[in-house]
Specification:
alpha/beta, Alkaline Phosphatase, subunit A, two-stranded antiparallel ribbon, 16 strands, disordered N terminus
């Protein structure tokens, strides 16, 4: 550290009503809260998609090296050296176990808990603690936010959503306790404000917001002087990193303003919700919030639900006009299966964009993707069969070099998905001896 100007890991750029967390800057920041091996801290995120996937277009033909990706996974081609496809994993908690119908609700509720949810559509919901919250319990004190729970469709805490199961089960994958699901945030503006929000008291905050709405300034404009002072302390490499990061923040602000359709004359009291109408842009903005949160070490744990389980959204933007849930009951119809595959690839393509951004964010001698562990998949395999074995699960990121990547691994039948969670928790520095129905750490 030639300039010998260390500052706190929680250093922020401050302006009138702004507190902008910084990415890792080697030349001035001490290495605090590192991974056990001395490298950058590990990050962990879980992404869920509804209604299962079309498995023939998901599963690689051969085990071992990921040479040729199947159609659904094709968008991951540039990153396949950092991707591991895991076949043969089972979510026993999603099975009926004498409770009858309700596989969609069970698949979401058990996806990160491994538990079998108590069948009720009343207030007496009962599930299990999810893997993200098991990690947050041990690691959450190290960051501004213990975890982020995001999605593109609101959570519910009541109602009958699937054959006698509460809507709390179909719309939440993160559970702090067996009776307390964590509702996800669906408004990207709200997440942005949490990450870069006001640091002043409420009264001053209201005044600042009114001023900002009048002037339509970026949060970065308010912190420009602080940013200029900081840049003088950085070496050339970190100066570029800071510029790239601040550009990304400003670009996201621009996209949010475009999505909101805010004109200069709109008063602060009429501020729109900020949720884009276009699904893809909504997903991108929410995923960008995770990138920024990881980049600034605001949190190391996140979950993201594309949509609630059983969602019947159509996708005319890619030529699919029938509802997704309706199509998932394909009955072996090749045309319906082709459309399901198209939806699955669309979802996966958005994940690939997110992974590319993690891979472009430099940290230490590697990237955010190198230090991360990103699990993507569904608690259902084939949407028509409603089966919970041989699930579509992939893991992206190298876990700080502990996961080789570029492979298709097939495990013995009935291997619990929760065995993977044991392995991830161990790599996060939040090891537990057992998680739900786990039988041992999955070999990766």
């Amino acid at each position: 550290m030639s300039k010998n100007r260390q500052v706190s890991r929680r250093t922020v750029l401050r302006g009138v009503g702004t507190a902008i967390a910084l990415p890792w800057l080697e030349s001035i920041m001490p290495r605090l809260s590192q991974a056990a091996d001395g490298g950058p801290p590990r990050r962990m995120a879980f992404f869920s998609v509804p209604n299962g996937v079309h498995m023939p277009d998901w599963t690689p033909k051969n085990e071992g090296s990921l040479d040729v990706l199947p159609p659904i996974l094709a968008p991951l081609e540039p990153l396949k050296s950092s991707v591991t496809v895991l076949s043969g994993l089972t979510l026993d908690g999603g099975r009926p176990q004498r409770d009858g119908p309700g596989d969609h609700a069970r698949s979401a509720a058990s996806f990160l808990t491994g538990a079998h949810p108590y069948k009720t559509n009343g207030k007496d919901i009962r599930n299990g603690v999810s893997v993200d919250q098991a990690a947050a319990e041990k690691l959450g004190r190290l960051t501004r936010f213990a975890s982020l729970e995001l999605g593109c469709e609101p959570s519910a805490q009541a109602g009958n959503c699937d054959s006698g199961y509460s809507c709390a089960y179909t719309s939440n994958i993160s559970w702090r306790t067996p009776t307390s699901p964590l509702s996800k945030e669906v408004n990207p503006r709200a997440v942005f404000d949490r990450l870069f929000g006001p640091a002043e008291p409420a009264a001053e905050n209201r005044a600042r917001r009114a001023q900002q709405e009048r002037r339509r300034q970026s949060v970065l404009d308010f912190a420009a002087e602080d940013a200029a002072e900081l840049r003088r302390k950085l070496d050339q490499s970190d100066g570029r990193k800071l510029d790239e990061y601040l550009y990304a923040v400003r670009e996201i602000e621009r996209r949010l303003q475009k999505a909101e359709g805010v004109a200069a004359s709109v008063p602060a009291s009429a501020r729109p919700a900020g949720t884009p109408k276009e699904f893809a842009e909504h997903v991108r903005l929410m995923m960008d919030m995770i990138v920024l949160a990881f980049q600034t070490d605001s949190t190391r744990i996140a979950t993201f639900m594309y949509l609630n389980e059983g969602n019947n959204r159509s996708y005319p933007e890619i030529g699919v006009r029938a509802g997704h849930h309706e199509l998932s009951h394909h009955g072996g119809n090749p045309e319906k299966q082709a459309q399901i595959s198209k939806i699955n690839r669309y979802h996966l393509g958005l994940l690939a964009e997110f992974l590319q951004k993690l891979n472009a964010a430099k940290e230490g001698g590697g990237t955010l993707l190198h230090s991360a562990m990103i699990m993507y998949g569904s608690g259902l395999s084939d949407g028509d069969r409603h089966n919970h074995d041989d699930l579509p699960i992939l893991l992206a990121g190298r876990g700080g070099g502990t996961i080789p990547g570029g492979r298709h691994l097939r495990y013995p039948k009935e291997t619990p998905l929760t065995n993977l969670y044991l392995a991830l928790l161990d790599r996060m520095g939040a090891a537990v001896p057992k998680f739900s129905d786990s039988t041992g750490k999955l070999e990766l």
